[in-house]
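Methods, example record. To illustrate the input and output format used throughout this study, we show the complete record for plant cystathionine gamma-synthase. The sequence lines were provided to the predictor; the line carrying structure tokens was produced by it.
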Amino acid sequence: MNSVTSMLLSLVPASGHIVTTSDCYWRTRQFMQQFLPKMNIGVTVIKPNDLEALEAALNAQKVTLFFSESPTNPYLRCVDIAAITKACHAKGAIVCIDSTFATPINSRALSFGADLVLHSATKYLAGHNDVLAGALAGKKELVEQVRTFHHIMGGVVDPHAAYLLMRGIKTLDLRVERHNASGIEIAKRLEKHPKIDRVWYPGLESHPDHSIAKGQMSGYGGVVSFEVKGDLWAAAKFIDSVKIPYIAPSLGGVESLIEMPAVQSYWAFGPEKRAQIGIKENLIRFSIGVEHVEDVWADLAQALEQVP
Ligand SMILES: *Cc1c(COP(=O)(O)O)cnc(C)c1O
Ligand SMILES: *[C@@H]1O[C@H](CO)[C@@H](O)[C@H](O)[C@H]1NC(C)=O
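The corresponding predicted structure is encoded as:
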């Protein structure tokens, strides 16, 4: 989060304007909508890939920066980085992509024209669910501005966390290979399961952004979101019945983690507000670890049997 806040505070001037996409990590949205207005910074929220809305926002005011995850949390929406960059650069807006879910192996936002790419290194980069860190890379003159501000703010990674992060990165390629392979396999099997309503995984043809993802990603990673047939309690029964994943709100580590966004991240919102921002009551976000895919599947399948 410090990478996000330092980046925004150092690059967007008072009275500036940001364009961002609807599906996203909640804290980032909270910072933009609840804190930045204090500096008279405005935010326009568009649907991922609504290029008309992006054009309209770019024409309505001077936009300093476009920010989106790709894939997003929790529906794994992917934005067309090249198309967005083209539109933004024509109006002098900076493009920053939070590529946490993709990892630098599966997607290279900078090579599609983005000015900056951001990662929560807490997730795949460190990879072991035991470090908090972030990373920002891209155009030197932009990164320099952020770095100067970052030194003022003091949100630094301590030496032990830095060591764990460096150690984790050594196996990034090996881990992502397994996450990619297990991710697509589990997504396909879930999609065929009678107790599943819908699966959200950019590697599936049924995903709304499959063709975009195919064009800019080499693999689709280990996060699979899906809707259990039934209500919040059906999904809760499922999640309480799995044995391998820990029930926890992070992702991208060697251990599988599973969570219900409606309960863990958005409970305080209540059902109406959740519906309004598109968080389904029966939605599960599953971050597949590096366990054997057949063990993971057997566990999910037995838990689905418990769902009434
Ligand atoms: C986790 C996450 C963050 C926040 O990162 P922390 O390392 O937990 O501060 C930001 N963006 C995305 C997409 C994330 O998944
Ligand atoms: C998955 O990950 C590896 C990294 O090891 C990558 O090279 C590969 O292209 C990715 N994609 C698929 C579909 O496996």
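Annotations derived from this record:
DSSP finds 13 helices and eleven strands in the chain.
The chain has a mean pLDDT of 97.
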